[in-house]
Write a structure and sequence with these properties.
This protein has 217 residues and is of the alpha/beta class. The chain contains 9 helices and 8 strands. A 5-stranded parallel sheet has the order 2-3-1-4-8, with helices on both faces. The longest helix has 15 residues, at 166-180. The protein is globular and about 50 Å long. Bound molecules: BIS(adenosine)-5'-pentaphosphate, magnesium ion and zinc ion. The site of BIS(adenosine)-5'-pentaphosphate has 36 residues, from helix 1, helix 2, helix 3, helix 6 and strand 6.
């Protein structure tokens, strides 16, 4: 199954992609995570991307399309994958269609996590993740079972993203409105758009997504 999770910053794309990945054994492909990994590795792409990400602006289509094209060609993506944070512009969506078309393939579904924008800033500024395994948490909405200890790997080290501050969030939201929200219409017209309430509790959102996936042909 090939799935896209679409939604503004903080809508829950990463949270839900992690869960679907665990449940269904599909690879989660997050362009944000890949770019942050490239930044940590100090590659040329990573360093260029960092400056844009820190400001909340989009990285060029050429760079992210290149990353995804290389990644979905790998064997672990054969059974399917979940795209989290890609595509983000109409140009990226068209490039993805071409990539799959060339293999006689197509996306199965796009799940839009519909969000109440007033609540997204709180979600974003309260977010943190395990430094070791990457499991995502939130100061209020998703605390580890034992305080200060990762549920998944037991690590006690956590990190926060450099772009998770109230100022950058506004720029990220603007980028979403301007560049990414047209994809809702794009995928609606292709007949593969499904809308889920992203403001319900995490488990309810997961259940709603499973409901959508279960009905796919
Ligand atoms: P990216 O990393 O994709 O960031 P984003 O789109 O801003 O989205 P977020 O990761 O902030 O939100 P999310 O929807 O994953 O929410 P999460 O599940 O963590 O991109 C970062 C940057 O990289 C971009 O600004 C751009 O510069 C660049 N980039 C990436 N891809 C690109 C592309 N394709 N093209 C160009 N540039 C690109 O949830 C947020 C918090 O809320 C968490 O703490 C979570 O625990 C909590 N939470 C989640 N769901 C719920 C719920 N239902 N109820 C309560 N709390 C919840
Ligand atoms: Mg994310
Ligand atoms: Zn961990």
């Amino acid at each position: 199954m090939k799935l896209i999770l679409l939604g503004p910053p903080g809508a829950g794309k990463g949270t839900q992609a992690q869960q679907i990945s665990k449940r269904r054994g599909l690879v989660q492909l997050s362009t944000g995570d890949m770019l942050r990994a490239a930044t940590r590795a100090g590659t040329e792409i990573g360093l260029k991307a960092q400056a844009l990400m820190d400001k909340g602006e989009l990285v060029s289509d050429e760079v992210v399309v290149g990353i995804i094209a290389e990644r979905i060609g790998q064997p672990d993506c054969k059974p399917g994958f979940i795209l989290d944070g890609f595509p983000r512009t109409l140009q990226q969506a068209a490039a993805l269609d071409r990539m799959l078309d060339d293999k006689g393939d197509r996306m199965d579904a796009v799940v839009e996590l519909r969000a109440d924008y007033n609540q997204l800033v709180e979600r974003i500024v309260g977010r943190y993740a395990c430094s070791k395994c990457g499991e995502g948490y939130h100061d209020r909405f998703k605390r580890p079972k034992v305080r200060g200890v990762c549920d998944v790997c037991g690590s006690t080290e956590f990190t926060r993203r450099a772009d998770d501050n109230a100022e950058t969030v506004t720029t990220r939201m603007m980028a979403y409105y301007r560049e990414t929200s047209p994809l809702i219409g794009y995928y609606f017209c292709k007949g593969i758009l499904h809308v889920v309430d992203g403001m319900a509790p995490i488990d309810e959102v997961s259940a709603a997504i499973e409901g959508v996936l279960a009905k796919l042909p």
